[in-house]
Design brief:
It is built from 5 helices and 2 strands; from the N terminus they run H-H-H-H-E-E-H. Strand 1 and strand 2 form a beta hairpin. Helix 1 packs antiparallel against helix 4, helix 1 runs parallel beside helix 5 and helix 2 runs parallel beside helix 4.
């Protein structure tokens, strides 16, 4: 099950990056749906979150029941200057983070997938459950970028 979720994470990331790279530059800062983020913001958001995701998985593997630090997506666009950042650099970061995580997590033992961390809103999560949450989040932004 976990290997299938990891494959889905990798596939969704590759599709996200392929679609994002095909968006004309003049449309990167235009939301397709009123109230949604423009594509550039979704790109930067995933790049920023991938750094968080990597840290979460590394902590679970190296610490006993670590706390997970939340990411506030309401303040991130302004605080992290999504408006002026380069989407190509964020896409490269997403691709590199995905390759890193897939390489790391493919090597993890079945026992390690049961290691836990504590999420401030979701409570105790196994590493396998965290991967599912991470993948669901990725799929949501993939749907957003498809629009």
């Amino acid at each position: 099950m976990t290997k299938a979720i990891l494959a889905q994470f990798e596939s969704a990331t590759k599709e996200f990056c392929t679609l994002a790279k095909a968006i004309p530059s003049e449309k990167l800062h235009v939301a397709a749906v009123q109230g949604e983020w423009p594509p550039a913001f979704a790109i930067h958001h995933l790049a920023d979150l991938d750094a968080q995701f990597a840290t979460r998985f590394l902590n679970i593997l190296t610490m006993e029941n670590p706390g997970i630090v939340s990411f506030d997506e309401e303040i991130a666009p302004k605080a992290l200057d999504y408006e002026h950042r380069n989407p190509a650099i964020s896409l490269a970061a997403i691709e590199a983070s995905c390759a890193f995580l897939v390489d790391l997590l493919e090597q993890v033992s079945q026992e390690a997938w049961n290691r836990t961390a504590v999420h401030p809103a979701k409570g105790k999560l196994t590493m396998s459950e965290l991967l599912a949450v991470t993948t669901d989040h990725r799929l949501g932004h993939l749907d957003q970028i498809r629009q």
